[in-house]
Uroporphyrinogen decarboxylase (Capra hircus), 373 residues
Amino acid sequence: PESSSLGICSYTLLPQPQGFPELKNDTFLRAAWGEETDYTPVWCMRQAGRYLPEFRETRAAQDFFSTCRSPEACCELTLQPLRRFPLDAAIIFSDILVVPQALGMEVTMVPGKGPSFPEPLREERDLERLRDPATVASELGYVFQAITLTRQQLAGRVPLIGFAGTWAWRSYFGGGSSTMSQAKRWLYQRPQASHQLLCILTDALVPYLVGQVAAGAQALQLFESHAGHLGPQLFSKFALPYIRDVSKRVKAGLQETGLAPVPMIIFAKDGHFALEELAQAGYEVVGLDWTVAPEKARERVGKTVTLQGNLDPCALYASEEEIGKLVQQMLNDFGPQRYIANLGHGLYPDMDPEHVGAFVDAVHKHSRLLRQN
């Protein structure tokens, strides 16, 4: 029964990675690889989040990063939305900021305010404070343990997505977070040092992502949350080359390690100006935020990649009936194949779980009807 297949996470059950249960629902993976599906698969960014009362209850006992470092807690939080909704994928509960932490940057989570960075990089010589990127994967063993435990506890119900954030700019440069002014000051005043930092980050991200697949992740999503702040010129100079490099090196790393390839998703928020380039950056799936018209996006990227997205998260404040209509329109616009339904960004803490359920159900219902017609 499903209830037992998503039971309590106990770390003593941890198996060897090769001993995973057989996958029962591969719709998400087939859509990601561009294969035909009977319906449109759906998952939500931040589906394990504060909008769920059980999430708030689990998280109440410890601070944010302590939770991230507990494989049992991450497993439990990852599974919670799947106990409520018939989602087609799980995404491991973690945070993109564990990478800067592993590189030696101090990151604290201030309740009600979000992440704080007490000692950002101010001068070029501050780059020497960063740890060797080759050590990052070993620092993040707790993420790999969480993935292996969760994959076992999922009991093959749906695939498990691993992820990382590309540059998490604010964690390195501190202030000016709403405008990214401190980070962009570096890009304009210290372009060489900026590239040096980006090389360090890429060298850290590649083994981290390969390690997630070795631990049991069946797909990978790369978040570039600040594409819109960079704009076309800075993005093509300081983000795109590294986004391409990550996919190329992760794919090579999987091959070298003897691991099967997994689909990779790139989600560059507000990066609509670079859709064509992102579609050719070596990722099977391009995630879209809600500012992009699906038909236009499809015209621009062609038929060789799968698209993912892109309902405005705030649409979930609408009535369940209205959510159904918006989903129907979205599915019509994207078309039935090479498409994974999602929101255009993560779920917000004040959202009604019933409305998240209505979104998921509407995708399944209308996508089946769309195929019949």
Observations:
- The domain at 26-370 is CATH 3.20.20.210 (TIM Barrel).
- Confidence is low (pLDDT under 50) at residues 1-5, 10-16.
- Residues 121 and 173 are 5 Å apart (CA to CA).
